[in-house]
Amino acid sequence: MRNLFRKSSKYFTIPAETVPREIPENLWVRCTRCGELLYVKEFERNLKVCPKCDFHFRLSALERIHLLTDPGSFVEEDADLQPGDPLGFVSMGQAYRDKIAETQARTSLTEAIVAGRGRLDGIPVQIAAADFSFIGASMGSVVGEKVARTMERALATGEPVVIASCSGGARMQEGIFSLMQMAKTASAVARLERSSVPFISVLTDPTSGGVTASFASLGDVTIAEPGAFVGFAGPRLIEQITKQKLPPGFQTAEFVLEHGMIDMVVHRRELKATIAKLLRLYTGVAGYGS
Q1: For the chain, which domains are there?
Q2: How many helices (H) and strands (E) does the chain have?
Q3: Geometric angle at alpha carbon 71, from 66 and 72, rounded to 5°
Q4: Do 137 and 131 touch, CB atoms closer than 8 A?
Q5: DSSP of 163-227, one letter per residue?
Q6: Is 75 exposed, middle or buried (0-12, 13-18, 19+ CB in 10 A)?
Q7: C-alpha distance from residue 272 to each of 44, 58, 80, 123, 227 (Å)
Q8: What does the DSSP 8-state code read for residue 254?
Q9: C-alpha angle 199/143/206, rounded to 5°?
Q10: Is the full-model pTM beyond 0.90?
């Protein structure tokens, strides 16, 4: 875990005037919630959680997978799947295919989700994690296909499924092809259920739109990180439509837990151990997979 977040500092900038001249800026990050300056090495040791206010910063897909899997155990699958442009979509003068190429170059990802096989505390799992930096982790046809294939591999092997979601919603540049992924992934979850293959769904900040309305809310156990946004539409849109003021903390992980939408809120430090415990309870074997 020591080198897992080596490149963390590129995601954060702080005003130059807040850092002493003799200290390089890449030694510090600023918490976006409490505003405290955090020493990068301390921040990284704390898994990108602010030690002052406990704010959970977003992780990339690979950071999330390495957080949850045993060192050296993860093998990626379906890395060659590439998004298409079925509508020839153009927005603000930019073609969708050009936006994809630009995002791929910037993130070094082919799509908004990384999937494969690994071990979680010795337990073999099929695992996937979304990356919000790739077009808001919106669910296009490739994202839905990777989720479905992850579950199909689990059906073939009997290995549990763990998926860490985040998303801004459907990939509308792909039109109806994007919306179809909701039905496809939900059907894949139903097949897991019929075959008694465990599925642990982890909701991270933010999880919204079609992802929330499909596979992400269908886990045997649904876990969220503290403070994560979990919902379908955003609060501003809901207020505009309903003409009502929403209650404090609406659509936070803690709020949806209180109202029965999820099963537990788990701190990032405890996430891997909690999932391992759940998987052993589901399999009924203390040393399953070891």
Answers
A1: 1-57 (no CATH), 58-283 (3.90.226.10)
A2: 9, 11
A3: 100
A4: yes
A5: EEEEESSB-GGGTHHHHHHHHHHHHHHHHHHHTT--EEEEEEEEE-HHHHTTGGG--SEEEE-TT
A6: exposed
A7: 17, 16, 28, 11, 18
A8: H
A9: 75
A10: no
DSSP helix/strand/coil, 96: helix
Residues 181-203: what's their mean pLDDT? 98
> Does the pLDDT of residue 212 top 90, yes or no?
yes
- The token duo for 42 is 């301390």
The pLDDT of residue 55 is: 97
DSSP of 109-154:
-SSSEEEEEEEETTEEEEEEEE-TTTGGG-B-HHHHHHHHHHHHHH
How far, rounded to the nearest angstrom, does the alpha carbon of residue 257 sit from its chain's CA centroid? 18
Of 128, 20, 25, the residue nearest 74 (C-alpha): 128
pLDDT class for 11, splitting at 50, 70, 90?
A: very low
